[in-house]
Write a structure and sequence with these properties.
The protein is α+β, with helices and mostly antiparallel strands. The chain has helices spanning 2-11, 48-58, 76-92, 102-108; strands spanning 33-39, 59-70, 113-119, 129-135. Strand 1 (33-39), helix 2 (48-58) and strand 2 form a beta-alpha-beta unit. The mean pLDDT is 93.
Length: 136
């Protein structure tokens, strides 16, 4: 996705810069952004707690994290399937953790979540539970 974004930025007339950096160590100053956007990223971050700490660090006071993420299912049955298939899915999907308890980790990081359940159509049920919204 970074490559696609870089090509779009190159074609754009707007000043923008694409920065390659791990979410666990963002190369930006404290409070540098009013908004951080995360779209299908948190499931692949190796150290989610560190990444969320970085999001909080780079957000300005009153800033918001806007996100779209697939998450661990609320359904106990689907959650068990996510746990069973997490290893195989991670290999298949380049490190994606289908059973990531994203909401709980956001809350543990001290973020107030405002998320709406959705469904990722066309994807296997394993990763279909989706949340859209913000955290601050």
């Amino acid at each position: 996705m970074r490559g696609r974004l870089a090509r779009r930025v190159a074609r754009s007339r707007r000043p923008a810069r694409v920065v390659a950096a791990g979410a666990e160590r963002l190369p930006f100053a404290d409070g540098a952004f009013d908004i951080v956007v995360s779209t299908m990223v948190l499931c692949t971050v190796q150290d989610l707690d560190a990444a969320l700490g970085e999001v909080r660090r780079v957000l300005a006071p009153g800033g918001r994290l806007l996100l779209i993420e697939h998450v661990r299912a609320d359904s106990p049955r689907l959650g068990r399937w996510q746990d069973r298939l997490a290893g195989a899915w991670g290999v298949f999907a380049e490190g994606c953790r289908c059973n990531q308890p994203t909401v709980e980790r956001l809350e543990a990081a001290g973020l107030r979540v405002e998320l709406t359940p959705d469904r990722w159509h066309g994807m296997p049920a394993l990763v279909a539970p989706l949340l859209v919204g913000a955290a601050s």
